[in-house]
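Hello again,

I reread your note about wanting to compare the complex against the isolated chains. To keep things tidy I'm splitting this into two emails, and this first one only covers the full assembly. Below are the input lines as submitted, including protein chains and any nucleic acid or small-molecule components. They are followed by the predicted structure of everything together. The single-chain runs will come separately.
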Amino acid sequence: MKNKKINDFLLFALFVFPAVAFVLFATDIPFVMNMYYSVFDWNGVGKSMKFVGLDNFIKIFTNDKLFWKGVTFTLKFAVFYVVIVNIISLTVAVVMSKEKKSSSVGRAFYYVPYIISLTAISLIWKFIFGPGFEALYNITGWEFFNWSWVGTPKLAFYVVVIMAVWQNVGFYMVNYIAGIIAVPKELTEAAKIDGANSFQVFRKIMVPMIMPAVSICMLTSLTFAFKLFDIIMVFTKGGPANSTVTVAYNIYKEAFVNNKYGMATAKSLVFVVFVLIVTAIQLKVTKSKEVEA
Amino acid sequence: MKKVRKVSILSVIIFLCSIFWLMPLLLIFINSFKPYNDMMQHFLALPESWKLDMYIETWTKFKFPMLIGNTLIYTIGTVLVIVLLAPMAAYKLARTKSKLSVVCFGLIIMPMMVPFQSYMITLTRLVANVNLTGTRMGQTLVSIGLCMPLAVYMIHGFVKNVPLELEECACIDGASKVRIYFSIVLPLLKPILTTVVVLDTLATWNDIITNQLIVGGNAKAMNIQNALYMQFSAQTSDWEHALPGIVMSMIPSLIFFVLMQKHIVGGVTAGAVKG
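Full-complex prediction:
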């Protein structure tokens, strides 16, 4: 009997432990280390680690303008991004959900930016907004192309929004299409026979029926917005004048540019709590609107 | 009649927009063949000739063979290890009811709930502590660890719907547990494994953050995205080399997309639950 137990355990270990080991190394242990370091004042290199208790957290909440500027930017970006990307992708999905050859080509076109790396995307838009707009200004003479898009804080915000929306519409479109296809045909047909026009069908039948897709898209777009990092790192680097620093980029800079590891890890923890709270609220709100078929 | 026309106008606009959507990529492509002066003067025109000179120069000057080699090592290494280990763990976890099993599952999926940026700093420290900074080994190990949670989670959900009877039959026939897994369970997991392979291939090929953090400026272990970042994201950019570089970095993803289109669209949606 005992032998069998040991055998079972060994088998379990053989199957499960390797995977656990990789995850422990790459994420779980770093996450715990993160909590540990957050109560120290440490530059990341030297041996002098000074225990400071909750000082780092107090500093974040009382004396860190740049961090809160990052929070404001991230929230503002989240609102713009979530609204715009969901409206565009839902509109596209409604048209592209019809089973035609042309739809599948159209879908692929919208989807391509999603599979390209954020590095390439940032460089592509850097080229378009830089030399590209300069060239277009020379051709058309439109003042619009002559604005300093990347150089002025206000416009740089829209540049970031445009890039993020452009890249991700395809992803949400696919989710919405899956939701729309799952709506039973009888429902929409019955409504049409009863004399509803296409907008009414969309508003009264489609929208309630695709709420599960809407909640997935809302949730993923919201978490994407909160975690916005790559685009900022490659393209704007937080500039001009720190106007496009996101929370994640602020943490990265604190650690690797300012060499304040303790502070950066404390900020990471605040960031985790912030993301968890907002996603929990958001899940609750959209879940309550879902209906059963 | 009026109603029909209204719908079709919207469709026409959306279809025209889909071409507009690809404009940035098309502009990058046509301008990658032009000298800088031509880009500025004839931005929208097709290039005068489709000579590959700048492509070849970029290819050799920025050591593209090595970059592509590195990126391939990371991508293939990660995908192979994931395909070997993730289904094993997911299967055993789904079939074992014990405290240990719950704890292990918790440890594996915990990272899905917290953003990567919240532990990336200490991850970099940890990799430095075990002397793997700047090495291919370090990058591959981290990449596997980061892809594992979602892979196990997705396969775990799939295994729960695989009927137990099949395994019981084989057990009565006297097959060993390991053998049952490899010859009966694993083939059944093929659909979800395809999804996992697609997701992890794209994620590893396109990765910049972990390569930037772990490899940094070490030219020998850079992947292609990191090299593009290091070379071209500074203020003054050398667009004559940057554009061909961007195009070459995208070609493998695009080919992969065309080959796997069906699975990609399905697979990426399946991964959406991660958030």
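For quick reference: Strands of chain A lie at 40-41, 50-51.

B.
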